[in-house]
């Protein structure tokens, strides 16, 4: 067995963490033979709940789980970590836009960026889940200047999974038959789920999504709106934001980052823009990425972008520029 991977989960007393911790600790993310040290961070009023979570982790009797460290102090939480799953933040309530959370949540990510800079390994891989996830990741990276910007990401895999599932249901196939759906931009209602480069396998034949679905109007309207509004629909129905599906998506995101993507397939991650596809440099924008075996990703290059896509990609970029400016103001 290899050395344990030290994994921090913030918001560890919250609802996403309750679904997430078990999957991480049983080997779904870092490999079935990789021992795990789990670090759980939450705020002091949640210390009692955190104790209960630790008891349950112990009671799962998981062979890969070497140690659980529960804390309410960032200096302890971020110490020499290999991976950070930054979930802890306020969730949106019905009627709020995700950017309404910005002022409250961005300060958490400034503080955690500084803690990453000071205490974490320089190779740490960070996924920001707390909303507004893209802008929180940007702030986190900005306040951790000693860690390479490419080590920061935000979660848009939930949007990818939602898009894939919608296409699969419409085509009457399993989700695994749908490949290379792209989520561009912000994890918000301006995101652009793009199926122009995606394929569906039906009866052994690989078809474009447009040929498989044969309903361009649905693909250009209802499909996009459903994916963009899915988070809000879940909040309306559950009176709580998505948790089980979010936890699954966090596992998918970090597993692929750790182990790499299959040849010819890409996944969507919010990453720091290098200017690809005309997206302003420095924004944390969701792109299609291919990931190698050494935990390093490349933004997929050269995808043809039609006018319909261009408008939607620019629209979600504009929202991210506004969020960035508001966040920087809130941090000062
Ligand atoms: N990017 C995505 O796809 C996605 C999907 C679902 C939810 N989310 C977001 O994830 C976040 C968490 O959602 P949830 O449903 O688990 O919320 P929750 O309220 O159930 O749990 C959040 C936890 O974070 C803790 N917390 C608050 N401030 C903290 C801090 N400074 N350090 C550590 N912990 C802190 C809270 O005490 C709480 O226990 C929300 O912002 C939500 O909007 C993002
Ligand atoms: O705030 C929301 O829209 C819901 C939480 C989450 O971002 C999601 O997509 O389910």
Q: Could you please describe the fold and organization of this structure?
A:
- Helix content is 42%, strand content 19%.
- Helix 1 (15-25) packs parallel to helix 11 (244-259).
- The protein contains 12 helices and 14 strands.
- The chain is of the alpha/beta class and 332 residues long.
- Strand 4 (83-86), helix 4 (102-119) and strand 5 (125-128) form a beta-alpha-beta unit.
- The protein has 2 domains: 5-154, NAD(P)-binding Rossmann-like Domain (Rossmann fold), CATH 3.40.50.720; 157-325, Lactate dehydrogenase/glycoside hydrolase, family 4, C-terminal (L-2-Hydroxyisocaproate Dehydrogenase, Chain A, domain 2, Alpha-Beta Complex).
- The relative contact order is 0.13.
- Residues 10-11, 13-16, 41-43, 46, 87-92, 108, 129-131, 133, 155, 158, 187, 241-243, 246 line the site of nicotinamide-adenine-dinucleotide (NAD).
The amount of helix comes to: 40-55%
Q: What separation lies between the terminal Cα atoms?
A: 46 Å
CATH class of the largest domain: Alpha Beta
The CATH H-level superfamily of the largest domain is Lactate dehydrogenase/glycoside hydrolase, family 4, C-terminal
* CATH architecture tag of the largest domain: Alpha-Beta Complex
Q: What pattern of helices and strands is seen along the backbone?
A: EHEHEHEHEHEHEEEEEHHHHHEEEH
Strand content: 15-25%
Number of domains: 2
Uncertain spans:
none
Q: For the largest beta sheet, what order do the strands appear in spatially?
A: 3-2-1-4-5-6-12-13-14
Largest sheet composition: 9 strands, mixed
CATH topology of the largest domain: L-2-Hydroxyisocaproate Dehydrogenase, Chain A, domain 2
**Category from helices, strands and their pairing:** alpha/beta
- The best one-word shape is globular
Individual helix count = 12
Would you report the number of β strands? 14
The set of bound ligands, ions and cofactors reads:
nicotinamide-adenine-dinucleotide, (2S)-2-hydroxypentanedioic acid
Instruction: Give the integer mean of the pLDDT values.
Output: 96
Rg, Cα atoms, Å: 19 Å
Enzyme class: oxidoreductase
Pfam family, one: Ldh_1_C
EC number: 1.1.1.37
InterPro entries: L-lactate/malate_DH (IPR001557), Lactate/malate_DH_C (IPR022383), Lactate/malate_DH_N (IPR001236), Lactate_DH/Glyco_Ohase_4_C (IPR015955), Malate_DH_AS (IPR001252), Malate_DH_NAD-dep_euk (IPR011274), Malate_DH_type2 (IPR010945), NAD(P)-bd_dom_sf (IPR036291)
């Amino acid at each position: 067995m290899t050395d344990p991977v030290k994994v921090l989960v913030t918001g560890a007393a919250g609802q996403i963490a309750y679904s997430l911790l078990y999957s991480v600790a049983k080997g779904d993310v870092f490999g079935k033979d990789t021992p795990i040290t789990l670090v759980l961070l939450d705020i002091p009023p949640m210390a009692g709940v955190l104790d209960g979570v630790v008891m349950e982790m112990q009671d799962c009797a998981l062979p890969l789980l070497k140690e659980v460290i529960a804390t309410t102090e960032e200096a302890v939480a971020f110490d020499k970590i290999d991976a950070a799953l930054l979930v802890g933040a306020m969730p949106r309530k019905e009627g709020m836009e995700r950017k309404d959370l910005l002022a409250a949540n961005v300060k958490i990510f400034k503080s955690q960026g500084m803690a990453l800079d000071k205490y974490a390994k320089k190779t740490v891989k960070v996924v920001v889940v707390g909303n507004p996830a893209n802008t929180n990741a940007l702030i986190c990276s900005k306040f951790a200047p000693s860690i390479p910007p490419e080590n920061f990401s935000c979660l848009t895999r939930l949007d990818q999974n939602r898009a894939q599932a919608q296409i699969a249901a419409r085509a009457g196939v399993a989700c695994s038959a749908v490949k290379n759906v792209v989520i561009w931009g912000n994890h918000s209602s301006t995101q652009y789920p793009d199926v122009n480069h995606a394929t569906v396998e039906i009866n052994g034949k690989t078809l474009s999504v447009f040929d498989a679905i044969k309903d361009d109007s649905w693909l250009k309207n209802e499909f996009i709106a459903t994916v963009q509004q899915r988070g809000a629909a879940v909040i309306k129905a559950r009176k709580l934001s998505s948790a089980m599906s979010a936890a699954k998506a966090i596992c998918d995101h970090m597993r692929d980052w750790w182990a790499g993507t299959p040849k010819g397939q890409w996944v969507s991650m919010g990453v720091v823009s290098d200017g690809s596809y005309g997206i302003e440099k420095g924004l944390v924008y969701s792109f299609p990425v291919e990931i190698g075996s050494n935990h390093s990703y490349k933004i997929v290059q050269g995808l043809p972008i039609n006018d319909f896509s261009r408008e939607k990609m620019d629209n979600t970029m504009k929202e991210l520029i506004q969020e960035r400016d508001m966040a920087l103001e809130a941090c000062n």
